[in-house]
Amino acid sequence: MKDYVAVTYDEKRKPYTDYPFNLAVYLHRRFKMTPYQTLIDVGCGRGEYAKAFSYLGLRVTALDRSNAAQQYGYFCNYKFIRMDFEGGFGTSGLSFIEKFDYVFIKSVIEHLHGPEHLINDMWHVLKPGGRIIVMTPDWSSSYKDFYGDYLHRSPFCIDALRDILLIAGYNNVKVEKFLQLPILWKHPWLSSVARLAQMLPKKFADWSYFVRWSQAVMLLGTGTK
Fold it and tell me: Whole-structure pTM over 0.90, yes or no?
């Protein structure tokens, strides 16, 4: 049986881009991350975000049930642990994981049957005052394409992501829609143009990078311990 990440994120199918590094830089600045703070990247996939955060000076631990990222672990300053966290870590899984300043979970919880187990466990591996950062597709924007990935299990809207964080005990919970266009992070006034692009038929997404990523809306949820 072939590896999910190796197939769905094959380099020919999804070439490497500078987006992971740009997003890491944005989050690093937004949440005032500092050198030598610790971050755990849960469901790290190919390891692109782990690589980016470690390049920015954080001490990174990357987890995934696929070993696709392991090849990068030898060349980058992060530690890789192969682990299946579908049902949460459980007591044994948590026992050897240190406490972290940041938990980063991108494009993962929508793949889980019980995402609440993972969100609950991450509360225990955060340091007091630490922050969780969760990114997942916005169901209201992606419902037509959501099940194009056969491993998508749990769709989220703003209220659902907020509630799963609140129920797990996180404080200062905030959830927002997030557009995956770095130009909007630098020039927020262009968001009005992106909102217009979201109303265009899907066929326009095949012709325009701006339209495509205006329509690929994520949710960004955060909370602190």
Answer: no
